[in-house]
Amino acid sequence: MVRLNIYIFFFLVYPFILLTNGYVPEKLHLTVYYESKCPDSKKFILEQLQPTVELLHKYVRLRLIPFGKSMSIDYGDEGFQCQHGPTECMGNLVQDCALKYMRKHNDVQRVNYVVCEMELEAGAMGNLGCVKHARLPTDDVERCVSTGEGIALQLDSEYHTNSLKPQFIPSITINGVFDQQIQESALVNLKETLCSYLKEAQPCAHYYNNKVWEYLFYSP
């Protein structure tokens, strides 16, 4: 019976592997709404976003929006009020400014920078250590943080976040669309969630093929 299953596997799956080899589908637009000191954001970015982007960066275009459940006061003239306190407001601001200067960096580099901030909370403490580690122009980032430039970036992040009206942070959209089932799936397995859209992408084909092998040989 096992041998028959193997034959079925190669008959059905192996041609699919050959067809998907080298195939590059249209990129998914993945947007992540998060907060700099949010434990759930940290868990998602470290455990789900970073490994998934490393695997699927050729197939995804990522946007990171550090704002979450924050709120501007008098259109930013009086600063911002943040869910986890004033240091989170600083962390959001530093990340928004740093990400501005990473627009020509690839998604892996940008996620690695955010991972540093989420792990160390450097920006939230007014420390530009993660900015330096990412080899960004610290003087420019510091100027952005201390002037209206950073406030304008946070107001833009507020606008996009309020347009979504997320009930939970972090939240994600795919191709600009929020779906509660996709959200719940992404929080526990972002790779599998994105692969459900990218089945013909080689890393996803490999992922599903491994699932088939596990089913054939390890199912009771």
* DSSP, total strands: 5
Might you state the CATH topology name of the largest domain? Glutaredoxin
Average pLDDT number: 87
Biggest sheet record: 3 strands, mixed
- Proportion of residues in β-strands: 5-15%
Order of helices and strands: HHEHEEEHHHHHEHHH
Percent helix, as a range, is 55-70%
Shape: globular
Transmembrane segments: 6-24
Protein name: Gamma-interferon-inducible lysosomal thiol reductase
Family: Belongs to the GILT family.
Pfam families: GILT
Short account of what is shown:
This is Gamma-interferon-inducible lysosomal thiol reductase. Belongs to the GILT family. The protein is built from eleven helices and five strands, in the order H-H-E-H-E-E-E-H-H-H-H-H-E-H-H-H.
Your description of this structure?
It is a single chain. By secondary structure, this protein is mainly α. The chain folds into two domains: 1-25 and 198-220; 28-187, 3-Layer(aba) Sandwich (Glutaredoxin), CATH 3.40.30. The protein contains eleven helices and five strands. Strands 2-1-5 form a three-stranded mixed beta sheet, with helices on both faces. A two-stranded antiparallel ribbon has the order 3-4. Strand 3 and strand 4 form a beta hairpin. Helix 1 packs antiparallel against helix 11 (202-218). It starts with a helix and ends with a helix. 36% of the residues are buried. Residues 1-20 have low confidence and may be disordered. GO terms for molecular function: oxidoreductase activity, acting on a sulfur group of donors, disulfide as acceptor. This is Gamma-interferon-inducible lysosomal thiol reductase. Pfam families: GILT (PF03227). Belongs to the GILT family. The chain crosses the membrane at residues 6-24.
